[in-house]
Batch of 2 targets.
Target 1
Amino acid sequence: MTAEPVPLRPVRPRWRETLGLLVRNKVALGAALVLLAIIVVAVFDRAFAPQSANAQDIADRLQAPSWSHPFGTDNLGRDILSRVIIGASVSLKVGFLSVGLALVVGTLLGLLAGYYGGWVDDVLMRLMDMLFAFPAVLLAIAILAIRGPGTSNTIIAIAVVYVPIFARVTRASVLGVREEVYVRASRSVGASDFRLLTRHVLPNAAPPIIVQTSVSLAFAVLAEAALSFLGLGTQPPNPSWGLMLAEGREFIGLAWWLAFFPGMAIVVTVLCFNLLGDGLRDVLDPRQRTLMAGGGR
Amino acid sequence: MVLAGVSVLVFSLIHLVKGDPVRRALGTRYSQEAYDALRARNGLDLPLVEQYFTWAGRALTGDLGVSFRSGEPVTTLIAERLPATLTLALAAIVLALLIAVPLGTISALRPRSVVDRIATVISQFGISVPDFWLAIVLILVFAGTLGWLPSGGYVPLTENPVEWAQRLILPAIATGVVSGSVLTRFVRSSVLEALGSDHVRTAQAKGLPTRQVFTWHVLRNALLPLVTVTGVQLAYLLSGVVVVEIVFSWPGLGQLALQAVEARDYPVLQGAVLLFALVFLVINLLVDLLYTRIDPRIRQ
């Protein structure tokens, strides 16, 4: 009688192979490259922007797109291309920081809940259920109503909205790997909880979390735009895409380009995060596909 | 249990505000009498724990306090705004289903065909477009350039059905397209899964006509989970249309909540948030119940 061979090492997600599959997915690769370009432009925004975001030239206001102003100018004569570029750094900063915060806190909570189970799980997940009962946009608005508008509070508000989502995804994934042979084997030879969690559980539970990160980034950019559009997020005169839409809305009949270009910037960025998320899901976590498709926002 | 927690969170809202919310809300209208009266009416002069139970007890009987701004009961303000939000959310979900079921089914039946590719591109775009930007573009094209439809406002159905419909079309499209895209993707993957399942293969092997296999074995199974997702989308629409309501000057709950934020009218904001959370929970519960009723497999 031969026993199943017990793998001495956990089956780690094979990163090189994963990357190879992702590169072969042309749509996801294209999305990743566009995102990379947007991120580079956002990081070096001052170098790429032809003018400063707030350089006004009243004589040149509400100019239609032309060679000197490819995206036109706004009601104060500010160059829209420059504002869209500098707005990218604002929008992406809020997106990355809020999702990063939610990722760290949510993953930690989900890891503890899923790994320890029992009352830890009960308490943490009921708390997450409570936060989850609030509709996302409204929760963010309520948090901003308490803390006041502004960029850093927007980051906190969006992060709070996404913490329960990361906690749930992580917990479900951890439950799947917690009883795997390699985890039990490692526990039986006396590995500490910390070592088990960081070396075995988290790396193997990671794929759905990675997918969720990409999808959440898409929605965080949308949420930042919506909150800034409502006047609760980024405050003028700083350009953020949502704020530019709000400003452009007043001139919509007169100058369509004011609202059109920042809107397109949001669509392209969000689209790329979504496409990359889909590609990552296909490669890392095919079973989740149908499950997540119904998740809505 | 969750509801109790939710109510504590909503209750804390007013106490987490920096400074004295009543004083800030009164602003220049401040007088000691007005201040005391407003605090007493909203139960803010009681000790904290007692305050919570008074507030929660009143909320259970439908009393959510009075507005800091107008002095009107919060329940009245909410009741005034509810029809507009319900109308928009229902119109949007109907539109979303009208888009999603045919489009999702066709793309699943012909995977990788031209129709499927177009549907995939459209739904990807629909998920990524901010609904309020779509709203602005729709206004620009249909209200501005073409001048076919009004750019905003709401008229009750009972007052003028034609104008009601005209004013509903653009907001419903702006919100419905996003939900429709989410649902299209769901229908597609759900039909694809049903097509590949064993019972469908068995039905085909028995030689049943394609049409019969499709309606009885594929669609029925594929559309069952749609109930859940549609419920989630409806809950999202009821609360998530805040920004679209602003763009179309739609006098709904989202607009009320935002006005409350701007006016620091915390009782109104508390009321709106509590109601949305309640609706969210109730819809999720109903969806679960409905799902167990229509799907015998999980009736255990």
Note: The CA atoms of residues 139 and 145 of chain B lie 9 Å apart.
Target 2
Amino acid sequence: MIAAKEICKYYGSGANRQEVLKSVELNVSDGKFVVILGASGSGKSTLLNVLSGLERADSGSVLYDGTDISRFSDSELTRFRKAQVGFIFQQYYLLPHLSVEKNVRMGADLAGNKNYAEVIEAVGLAEKCKKYPSELSGGEQQRVAIARALAKKPKVLFCDEPTGALDEATGRQILDCISKLQRSSGVTVIMVTHNQNIADMADTVVRLNSGTVLEVQHNNEQKSAYEIGW
Amino acid sequence: MVIGIKDALKFIGISIVVCCAAFVCTLFLSYDLDLNSLENIPDAAMPLYNAQLSMGKAIAAISGCGLALTSVVLLVFYLKNYIDAHGRELGILKAIGYSRFSVAKHFWIFGLSVFFGTAIGFVAAYLYMPTFYRVQNADGILPEMAVHFHFELPIYLIVLPTLAFAGLAVLYAIWKLKAPVLNLLRGNCTKAIKAHKEKDESFLKGLRSATLKSKKLLIFLIAFSAFCFSSMVQMSLSMSDLASETFAWIILMIGLILAFMTLLMSLSSVVKGNAKTIAMMRIFGYEDSVCSDRILGAYRPFSYIGFVVGTIYQFALLKLMLGVFFADVEIPAYTFDWKALIIAAIAFVALYEFILFLYAKRIKKLSLRSVMEE
């Protein structure tokens, strides 16, 4: 269970000080697919960074099963990220000089996961595991990023606009891939997007506007990636 | 235009190296020219006179050529980094219709870094020359010499190198700007990564070898900095019986400046070039010590190789110079100086590890957010 309590975050100082998150409250149950929805500049990526321990909130706390990670030191946060979370970014951020296999092992080796090949197969890239990122399409690169994140067996997977740089068809494939792997592994997924339609795939939808949670909506029925509009 | 004097100032590493080159060459070539003009040399002093003449030329040639080559390597390295970092601006210029040459011609400005460096080195050599001549005159074997200004020296040591480096910068830019506009705009004007057979090894081992393979020039520069440190420090320590203290100090200072410059520049480039990799590793939960060890530590063996080569080089060079130029002069026999080796080795390891420690701290301070937003 993840609980965010009265999270406030500011950027800049003096006259340029801007409140990006305004006393955000949020609860995420284990194994759920949560979508944080908001327009550009609504603070959704900042909230994702704070929840995942990449950034510190200026006030408030983030609790993982009752443990407050906002009080962690830098090295404790590193250990926390190592043990608990995985990341998928819009720009993939694969290491260009390493093959698909080595990129996936970046996550797998941290968790001592010897069966990383299964994850590569699960994202449909078994044939391309010796290829380099520059030899892959955008969709394939994002699937490598998914495999890399899942190979470290995280408890929570944070996705920051994972389909933002992809065309519609490839975006659907990626969402389908994440959704299937989420169901099979039971990992909690927290995804940030500005695409309203992706919300229909989630268990929980958090609508964010100007750093404030407007609404938390629970879906009884989740649509597949191929049923949603784009 | 995107390139200005401010950019040329960033090439201060080249200015420092060419400053050293101009200083040594001005000092020894001027001394050589003044020595040449001496008349009425006593017969007994002829062997020393001939040896000094040859040694002046040899030192100017060896250090001048060595430092000039280093400057060329540094210029290419800096230019490559500059074009990679400013690919987007250069790509936009190409996209809106500027020709390759019309963009590249502005790179002449990087020749200014050579102008400033050589000019400072030249002036510094002339300021130091009276002291240098006084020391050389002190033994009284050769007739007294006075400092003269030689008009050909600023042409050979300031004007020509400046023009050569400005031309080289323009030519290199023309060649690099051959990259397609889209590649420049995407910040990717380097060649596609060549496929090669990867060993079945862990991520961290793979990362270490990939880091080394991705920037081979850095291997050379780091080995070169160790080479400079090792050869110059040992040479200055072991030549106390053979040359003046002043000369030993010049060698020591040049060695230290070169070693520092190349090492700092290389390690800065390693950290800058791998900032995204380090950021991703930290996001995934790799500890800072692991990140710095895998990225920076990969170059350690090459620095030690550079040190060993420098040791052999300085011994062979001194042996050769004494055998050839001072064959007819009575000087103490030269043997390998183990004490100098031990002092240089301890100083090098301490210095190298200290600089690595500072860069490891810099890695720790890298802001994940700013790196990912770049």
Note: DSSP finds 16 helices and no strands in chain B.
